[in-house]
Design goal:
- This protein is of the alpha+beta class.
- The protein contains 6 helices and 11 strands.
- The model has no long low-confidence stretch (mean pLDDT 93).
Amino acid sequence: ELDDVRCGVRISSLSHDGGAWVAVTEDGAVVRAHALLCTAPAPQAIALLAAGEVALPDDLAATLAAVTYDPCIAVLARPTSAPTLPPRGVVRLQGHDVLDLVCDNVAKGVSTEPALTVHATAAWSRTMWDEPDDVVGAALRGAAAQFTGTDATPLHVQRWRYSVPTSSSDDLAPGGDVPGPVHFAGDAFAGGRVEGAALSGFTAAQRLVQRLT
């Protein structure tokens, strides 16, 4: 039974004191656990463990270190008129200089208010990563107009440094018992798809249950 669930908490380090895993939050709170399931992007998982001076087995450390990602800049915008995207509300673009994805959130059924989600390509995102939000938002809004048939007002710019895995482990949920029961899960261990991420999580949970029982 889960009796200590915390959401919206930033972890600053993960360590092991010889008896339990220890997670230290940004505000100094400490959470102890018999086992660790980490679904953060691999570079962030490595950084958290390094902050806690955890030395993983060489093969597990190498698996995590080999995982790489493409970045993505996205913008949420309010259209000034009804978008003219296909009925399902999603256009995936191949070979476009700026855009990777354009979505009508109402047509997708994820919003009751008119809203567009626009994703930039990895190459464009790298080039524009440090540009101000207003510059990025305006550029993506303008590029998307030819596909949506409408102008839009940018509401929020989001930068995902570790957005799309570009390499993947063959193991759905790599892990081990040193220094304590630990497994890593996420789309980077399952081919970059939502379904694979779910399978990775299920696999990690099953393996941890086996280790703990």
